[in-house]
Design goal:
It is a single chain. By secondary structure, the chain is an alpha+beta fold. It has one domain (2-160). The chain is 26% helix and 25% strand. The protein has helices at residues 2-10, 52-63, 92-106, 140-146, 165-170; strands at 16-18, 21-23, 33-44, 67-74, 77-90, 122-124, 130-133. The chain has a five-stranded antiparallel beta sheet with strand order 2-3-5-4-7, covered by helices on one side. The protein has a two-stranded antiparallel sheet with strand order 1-6.
C-alpha cells in the first residue's frame, strides 16, 4: 500500500497507466507479458448507479481475499478498479481464468472492456485514493484448482459493457416476490 501511495505522488497531473504485471521490453503487448502479480477488474462509475462501489466492496469482502479499490479513469469517464494481489506471478492464461472466476463471483455488470486480460491497464491520477481491505492474499494455483469444475459454462465477458436499464430494474429487490405456484412451496 505504501508503494502505491509513493507511486501516485511521483507522477505529474496526467493520468498514469498501471498494470501490476512485468513486461519484456516494457510495453503491454500480450507477447511481452512475463507475469501478472494481481488481478485488476475495472468498472464504469455511471451517475445512475452510485452504489456500485459499495456492492463491489461487499461482494469482494465476502470472498475473503485481500483487495483494494482505486478510483481510476478511462477515456469514457470515471471508473473504479478492484485489485486482488496474488501470492505469485501468473501467466496470461492463468490470469484469464482467475479474472473470469472473480468476475463471476463479484457478479457486477459494467466492467471495462478488456478487464479480463492480463494486458489491461488502468489509469490513475494524482488525486487517486486507494483503499485497502484486509483478507487472505489470493494463492492463484490453489484458487485455479479449487474452481477447476466451477463456472465452466459461464461467459464472464457478459459483465463487460453497460448494464441495460431493463437488467438494472430486474435486479431491484422490490421486484422480487415469492412464487405462488405449489411447486415452490416449501
Amino acid at each position: 500500500m505504501d508503494g502505491l501511495i509513493r507511486q501516485l505522488q511521483r507522477h505529474a497531473d496526467e493520468p498514469t497507466g498501471w498494470s501490476f504485471a512485468r513486461w519484456r521490453r516494457g510495453n503491454n503487448a500480450a507477447t511481452n507479458l512475463l507475469e501478472a502479480h494481481a488481478v485488476v477488474l475495472e468498472y464504469a462509475l455511471p451517475r445512475e448507479d452510485t452504489e456500485i462501489v459499495r456492492r463491489l466492496h461487499d461482494r469482494a469482502k465476502d470472498l475473503g481475499w485481500v483487495f483494494f479499490l482505486i478510483d481510476t479513469e478511462s477515456r469514457n469517464g470515471n471508473t473504479v478498479t478492484i485489485v486482488f494481489p496474488l501470492t505469485e506471478g501468473v501467466t496470461a492464461a492463468q490470469y484469464g481464468r482467475l479474472s473470469a472466476v472473480l468476475a463471476e463471483q463479484l457478479g457486477e455488470y459494467g466492467m471495462a472492456s478488456g478487464s479480463l486480460a492480463a494486458t489491461h491497464i488502468v489509469h490513475v491520477h494524482r488525486s487517486t485514493t486507494p483503499a485497502v481491505f484486509v483478507g487472505q492474499v489470493l494463492d492463484p494455483q490453489s484458487e485455479i484448482l479449487r474452481t477447476a469444475d466451477l463456472y465452466q459454462g459461464q461467459i464472464a465477458r457478459r459483465f463487460e459493457g453497460q448494464r441495460s436499464a431493463r437488467s438494472l430494474k430486474a435486479t431491484e429487490p422490490n421486484d422480487l416476490h415469492e412464487p405462488d405456484h405449489p411447486l415452490f412451496v416449501w
